[in-house]
Design brief:
It is globular and about 50 Å long. With about 180 residues, the chain is an alpha/beta fold. It has five helices and five strands. About 30% of the residues lie in helices and about 20% in strands. The protein has a single domain, classed as TIM Barrel. Helix 3 runs parallel beside helix 4. The protein has a five-stranded parallel beta sheet with strand order 1-2-3-4-5, with helices on one face. The longest helix is centred in the last third of the chain and has 13 residues. The structure holds iron/sulfur cluster. The site of iron/sulfur cluster has 13 residues, from loops.
Length: about 180
């Protein structure tokens, strides 16, 4: 059987798995004291990028948001990911902030990518506070949720209840971190 593994460098380049690591947003509805991000608000100016990039953007007068869908529409993100994935197997890792917070755009992205044949699986980091009912029409077979536990905002029981609600709404693959 052919080994289509991300680190099998004997495979022809175009057949290799492509791993897309996507920091979708810095928006978050929590404000954990131990968070690596200094800001979480929708209008915060903080963007984690190299100093040189910040300087170049300042010179060019480019305004870049800390939220991916402010920079480009969801449709454009999907189209470009599909272009990268063409002829390969794509594995996505989506993180934030809280990726589910912009639910209208995130719903579109998830639904589209889950229906994309080349996308093998999508790992999503979340604090679990989203409403899973909103994703009723998304095929969740390819989705793996990594639900992080944040005791400052939701105790153990609340965290388990959130995960139960997620399971009840069809997300079958999940882990609590
Ligand atoms: S849930 Fe995650 S991203 Fe949000 S404040 Fe807490 S540690 Fe930061």
């Amino acid at each position: 059987m052919e080994n289509r593994h991300a680190w099998n460098f004997n495979e022809p380049l175009r057949k290799r798995t492509v791993i897309i690591d996507w920091l979708t947003t810095l928006w978050c509805n929590y404000r954990c004291s131990y968070c690596f991000q200094p800001e979480h608000g929708r209008h915060s100016k903080y963007i984690p990028r190299k100093r040189i990039t910040r300087i170049i953007n300042k010179i060019l007068g480019k305004q870049i948001s800390n939220h991916c869908f402010d920079n480009y529409p969801a449709k454009k993100w999907v189209e470009n990911i599909q272009k990268i994935a063409e002829g390969r197997k794509a594995v996505l890792s989506l993180t934030g902030g809280e990726p589910f917070l912009d639910r209208k755009n995130f719903h579109y992205v998830l639904k589209s990518l889950c229906e994309t044949e080349e996308v093998d699986n999508i790992k999503i980091d979340t604090n679990g506070s989203f409403a899973p009912e909103f994703y009723e029409d998304v095929n969740k077979e390819k989705i793996r949720l990594f639900v992080s536990f944040h005791p400052e905002y939701a105790g153990l029981e609340e965290c388990f209840n959130k995960v139960q609600r997620i399971i009840d709404n069809g997300f079958k693959r999940w882990w609590i971190l």
